[in-house]
Design a protein that fits this description.
Blueprint (H helix, E strand, L loop, with lengths): L1 E7 L5 E7 L3 E3 L8 E3 L9 E5 L15 E7 L1 E6 L4 E4 L4 E4 L7 E6 L4 E7 L6
Parallel strand pairs: 1-9
Antiparallel strand pairs: 1-2, 3-4, 5-11, 6-9, 6-11, 7-8, 7-10
Length: 126
């Protein structure tokens, strides 16, 4: 499994990085076949977000905290300050942690609203 990491580099620019999640076999349900699971990270809450069709962040911004976003429906476009653009559709996972630097722009695309699940990421989540 993997997710897209959006971070601020030493140059102050926001950059994307494709990150693989380490999974190990565990007994998730006692007496049942094992499943692959990542290390667990602490979370303080989870929320649903819906961006209306045509929504635009109105310029670059920095998230107030590190957050994991899981796109549930629609298409999201994110532009890092280094100019790279990513389109994230249903099932895409993004760790937004460019809490400093020049930030990024977020837009909904495809003429429909974008549904996401957002969970604050602890310092040890990576």
């Amino acid at each position: 499994m993997h997710y897209v990491r959006l971070y601020a580099g030493p140059d102050g620019e926001s950059h994307f990085e494709d990150t693989d999640v380490a999974l190990v076999p565990v007994e998730f349900i006692p007496g049942r076949p094992q499943v692959d699971r990542s290390a667990q990270s602490a979370a303080t809450g989870t929320a649903f977000i819906r961006l209306p069709a045509g929504w635009d962040s109105g310029g670059r911004y920095n998230p107030p905290r590190r957050n994991f976003f899981v796109t549930l429906s629609g298409e999201l476009e994110i532009e890092a300050s280094d100019g790279q653009v990513r389109h994230l559709g249903p099932g895409a996972v993004l760790l937004a942690e460019d809490t400093s630097g020049k930030g990024h722009i977020t837009r909904s695309r495809g003429g429909e609203w974008v549904g996401m699940l957002v969970t604050p990421a602890s310092a040890d989540a990576s």
